[in-house]
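Summary of Year 1 activities. Much of the first year was spent building the evaluation harness for sequence design. The harness presents a backbone, in tokenized form, and records the residue chosen at every position. We chose the following record to illustrate the format because it has been used consistently in internal testing since the harness was completed.
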């Protein structure tokens, strides 16, 4: 697992990259954003300025599974978004973590 941090004119952010072995290769199985920070746009005529933070964990509550799901808790703005947690399941056939469509990051 590695974390990539980026910063530019549009703000800053972080993305977690997760890789796993499959047969004789290492494959990237997930890219999950854990920070979106557009605060530098606040107060400059922009109505939306988002700050979303995610905390990522392995969900090891079910030890019968071969590959644990991920659990990410997201909080922040816009509109003081309430804290919410998503489970991201692993698709063994496609060999990737499937990020839900309603995941805000």
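For this record, the design step produced the sequence shown next.
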């Amino acid at each position: 697992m590695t974390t990539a941090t980026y910063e530019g004119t549009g703000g800053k952010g972080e993305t977690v990259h997760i890789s796993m072995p499959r047969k004789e290769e290492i494959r990237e199985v997930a890219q999950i954003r854990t920070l979106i920070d557009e605060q530098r746009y606040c107060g400059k005529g922009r109505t939306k300025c988002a700050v979303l933070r995610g905390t990522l964990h392995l969900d090891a509550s079910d030890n019968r599974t071969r590959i644990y799901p991920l659990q990410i808790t997201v909080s922040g703005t816009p509109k003081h978004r309430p804290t919410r947690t998503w489970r991201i399941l692993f698709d063994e056939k496609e060999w990737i973590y499937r990020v839900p469509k309603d995941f805000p990051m």
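The mean pLDDT is 85. Quantitative recovery figures across the full test set are reported in Table 2.
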